[in-house]
Request: fold
Amino acid sequence: MDVELLEIRQHMAQFPPFDGLSDELLDEVAGQVEVSYFKAGTDILTLDQEVHELCYIRSGAVEVYRRSGDLYNRLGEGDILGHFSLLRNHRVRFPATALEDTLIYFIPESVFRRLCEADEHFADFVELGRPRLEAAVEDQKKANDMMITRVRKLLTRYPVMVEATATVQETARQITAAQASAALVLDAAGDNPRYSFADSEERVWEMSGILTDSDFRTRVVAEGLPPDTPVGRLVGKPPITIQSDESVYEAMLTMLRNNIHHLPVLHRRRPVGIVHLSDIIRYETHSSLYLVSNIYSQSSVAGLAKLAPDVRAAFVRMVEEGASSHMVGSALSTIGRSFTRRLLELAERELGPPPVPYCFMVNGSMARDEQSIVTDQDNALVLSDDFDPERHDAYFLALAQRVSDGLHACGYTYCKGDVMATNAQWRQPLSVWKRYFSDWIDDPTPERLLHSSIFFDLDSAFGEEDYVEQLQDLLATKAAKSPLFLAAMARNALNRTPPLGIFRTFVMEKDGEQNNSINLKRRGTAPLVDLIRVHALACGSRAQNSFERLDDIARTQLLAPGVGEKLRYALEFLAMSRIRHQVIDLQQDREPDNNIEPENVADSERHNLKDAFQVLSNAQKFLKYRYPMPSRSHHRSR
Amino acid sequence: MLSLRQKPHPHAPNWPEYFRQRAAAAHSPLLARYFETGMPSPHTPIGEVEMVALDLETTGMDPRRHAIVSVGMVPFTLSRVRLAERRYWVVRPTRPLSSKSITLHRITHSEIADAPDLAHILPELLEMLTGRLAVVHFRHIERPFLNAAVKARLGGEGLRFPVIDTMSLEARRHRLSLWARFRRWMRRPPVSIRLHDSRLRYGLPPYQGHHALLDALATAELLQAQIATHYRPQTPIGELWS
Reply:
C-alpha cells in the first residue's frame, strides 16, 4: 500500500459502508479512485445518464432529485450515491447536483462489484436501499459497538513522529503544533524487524518509544533536563501497539491491561495514529468496558452489587448488536474477572496484605472466556509453598469468604459443587495442587474425572499468575502422555448426549421420547466443550477457550480434515442459540436460564439445531475410538 | 468581483514551434521521442487536453545547489484525476542533504542511500510527460529542477516544456487584480496563495502535505476548481500556460 493514499483511505474508513472493510479492501479502493471537482450548482449525475462508477462525497454537499424534480435527499461528506443505478440498469434514476463546491471520488464499477462480493456488510448497505434516516440510526447503533468497530475509526490525525536525535524542546513544539498529546520516537532501523516499517519514501524506521505529555513533566521537567536533551535518551523500549483493524474493545482492554493511556495504532507495522483513553471513553460511555472501569472504581460490595443490572444490560446490547458467542463470552468473563479482582482488592484493604503470596484461580467457563449471563462461581486459591495452615489459613479463609459472598451478591451464585476457595480442599499451596493434578491424571477415578473437567479449565484472576501457569504447564506436558487418562476423560465426555432434534413443539430424543424443553447447556454446549477439552489435552494445547483449543487441534492430525470446522460452527450455533434465548428471557422479564422452549424456536433455527446436534453426536462416537482404553491397564484398583 | 481580464503570458514562447525545433535537433533518443509528440496549439480548449500534475520534493530552492528527492505525478483531465495511473519515485539526490530539508521532509542520508539515481526513472518520467500538459504549483521549482537534472544526465541537453502554474493563477486573482490592489492600498495583509490555503478557498479538503504524490493530487484538484470557478472548459490553454 502506498502511504500517500492514506489520506484517501483514512477518510473513507470513517464512513459506512467503508468503515467495516478490511484494510486490504480499503487499500484497493483508495488506489483506484478517480477525482473530480464540482462547482456549486453544477450537475454530478444527470437523469438517464449511463453510470459505471460509485460516487463518494469527499467534501461538500449534494442534492438528489426525483424524476419529478422534487428533492429526494441531501447528502454530505462521506455519503455515497449512484449505487442504485449500478445495481440496476446503469441509468441514473435520481439526478444529483452539487449544492456546495464538492469533491467527488469515483469508484470504478469493477471495484464496487468486488466490494459487494467480498464484504457482506457493504453489500447489505448498498443493496437494501434503506431510507437515509433508518440507515443512519442503524449505523449509529453499529458504530456504538466497541466489539465490532475497528480502532482506526477513532483516529483523527497521523501520529507526531520525531527522530531520536530531536531535542525535547523541538518535540514538545511539534506535539503542540499538531494539538496532540504524544509523539512517537523513531530510530534508523536496527535489527528488530518487529518494530521497523517503511515510510512514504521507502525509508525504513524503527519505533523506539513513545513520549507523552506526562513524560515531559515526570521525565524532563521534574528531572531538570535541559531543553536540548535528545528524546532518544528518554525512551526505553518500543511501545505497546495495536493493529488498525482490531476492535475498539481490544484497544481498551490493551490499555487497561497495561495501564497506559496512549496506544499507537499500526497499519501492518506503520504507525497511523495514536488513540488516547479519553477517545474511547468519549466514544462509548455505556459499553461493557465502561462497566469494567466502573467496577474498579467501586469501594464496597454494595456498590459492586448495584452494577449487576448493568451487566445484564450490556449483555443484551452486545447480542442485539451482533456480537459472536466468542465476543459475548470473553466480555462477560472480563467483567466477571473484574468483579473478582475488585473484591480481592477490597478484601485486602480490610484484612491487610496477604501473609504469603497467592494466586486467585478461576475455573470453568470464566477460565475459558465463555461465561454466560447464567453462571455460578468456580474458583480456588493457589498459595505459596511457604503457606503454613496454622498461621495463615485464617487469613485466606476470610479472604475467600469475602470474595465468594461478594460474587454471590453480584449475581455469581455459590457453586453447588462447592468448587470455591472457601472449601479447604481448594485452598492449598502450589505443591499440593501439583500433586492433585498428577494424581487425577495418573489415577482417574470418577470423582477425580469430575474435578478434572472443572479444574482443567484454569486461569489466574489475581495475584501470582506464575502459580497457575506452572499448573497449566504440568497439565500440558503430562496429560498428552497418559492414554489411560485421555481414555477416561473421553468416556466421561460421553455422559451427556444431544437430543435428535426438535419436532413441532417437542424435543425428540433418540429413543423416540418427547420432551417439552431442552437444556441447551447440558445437552449441547457442555458436552461439546468437554469433547474439545479431551482433544486439546491430547495435543498438549495450553489454550483455555474452546475456539482457541480448536485452533490448536487443527494444527495436529487428531481430527479428520474439516471436522474441526464443523465443531466450530456447531459450538458457535449452540452457544448463540443459548445466548439468544437468554436475551429473550431478559426482554420478557423472566429469569434467564439455559432452557429453550421449542415454541420459541424459528424454522431456520430448528434446522440448524438439528445439524449442530448431529455434529456433536458424530464427534462423540469418534471420541471413543480415538482414545481407547489401554489394553494393559496400569491403573490401580479404584 | 473586480479583476483584470488576463492576457496570455507575455513571455510565453511559441511552444508547438519550440517542440518541433527541439525534436529535430535532439541528440538523446529519450528527448527526441518526448519532443516529437509535440504540444497542442495555444488555441486548444483546456477541457480537451490531457494534463499531468507534477510535484517534486527537493533539498532546497536553488537548482544549482540543491537536488530532487522525490517525484509525484498524476495524470488528469478537467473531468477526472486518474489516481490508478499515479507514479511516485524516491531518488537519490546528487548533492548532500541540508539539515533543514531533513526536518522538512524527514529524510536522512541513510534512508535514500538505496534509492536510484534520477537517470533510472527518467524514461518513465518522460513517458508520463509525453503528450500531456504539465500542471504545477509554483513553476519555479519543477521546471528548473527537471531541466538541470536532465542536462546533467543527457549530455547537456535540457528539458523545457509549458506548465500551468496554479499558484500563478491564484496570484492573478489575489495579487494582481484591482481588488487585490485595493486591499494593498487599504494595507490589508496579502492573501496566501500557497497550495493548502488556495485549496481552502475552493472548499477543497485539507491534505496533510509535503509528500510529492499527495501534493500532485492536491494541485490537480486545485486546477479543476480554478477552471470551474474562474474559467470555462473552452478557455484556450494559451491563456493559462507559461
